[in-house]
């Protein structure tokens, strides 16, 4: 009798050991599959708090998984996209709907911006209540920049064509349009020397202090919206850290110029040339913005 029990005990032990090994094998295959995904996998609760993320988040955002757990997934998005995506996330959650091809800009640990496309599915408890989302974020930054450049080049070609037509018409009519004295009279004196330029003032941290009408209309915002922004909020390429470095160069040399892409309120891009000037007496900076119509080969 004792011998029989001993043999049965051995078999149970072997079965248990094999079950553990099988579970470890499946777990390892699952982890390998998750880590092989282009992008990074994640899981949140119904409020968007991260409960899990794959190791390759470090390649995409610069953070280790341990630094991500317990933080809101919206915390890593740009301020502009946080509002948009959070609202959509809440609406989809109420309807228990999946997230499909949602583009959103995020800020990496080093301050650089990265654009992800998000796809995720909701999951539920036994009673059918939403308890979170599981999804994958894929880096599409290069594709977005390529799209911007193609869009801008097409726009530049159309603009050049229109300018040529305008010049030909002016030549044929032997007439050059001049701004009326009335239009000059109603321009704010502060911006009078920049009647046809888009101009804004900002501090050494890149916070917008003031802007003229041309500037906020060019980007599609109201003046009040512009005054609530940091330069990085509408710059599609430069992080705040990069912009501050350029500001420091302007403070050192008096002036600094560079090309970048501004993102309008409707999401469309615009290639611009920016000239930053240091106003030493006020310890402020002025930026003159002109749409860049140069065609690069």
Overview of the structural elements:
By secondary structure, the chain is of the alpha+beta class. Among the domains are: 35-139, 2-Layer Sandwich (Beta-Lactamase); 191-291, 2-Layer Sandwich (Beta-Lactamase), CATH 3.30.450. It is 41% helix and 26% strand. The protein has nine helices and ten strands. The protein has a five-stranded antiparallel beta sheet with strand order 2-1-5-4-3, sandwiched between helices. A five-stranded antiparallel beta sheet has the order 7-6-10-9-8. It starts with a helix and ends in a 6-residue tail after the last strand. Residues 1-8 and 174-189 have low confidence and may be disordered.
Share in helix: 40-55%
State the distance separating the first and last CA atoms: 90 Å
Low-confidence stretches: 1-8, 174-189
What is the mean predicted local confidence, pLDDT?
82
Tell me, briefly, the overall form.
elongated
CATH architecture descriptor of the domain at 35-139: 2-Layer Sandwich
CATH topology of the domain at 35-139: Beta-Lactamase
CA radius of gyration is 28 Å
CATH superfamily of the domain at 35-139: PAS domain
Secondary-structure map:
Blueprint: H1 2-35, E1 40-44, E2 50-53, H2 57-60, H3 65-68, H4 79-94, E3 99-107, E4 113-124, E5 130-139, H5 141-173, H6 181-185, E6 198-202, E7 208-211, H7 213-219, H8 223-227, H9 240-253, E8 255-263, E9 269-279, E10 284-291
Antiparallel strand pairs: 1-2, 1-5, 3-4, 4-5, 6-7, 6-10, 8-9, 9-10
Q: Nutshell version of this structure?
A:
The chain is α+β, with helices and mostly antiparallel strands.
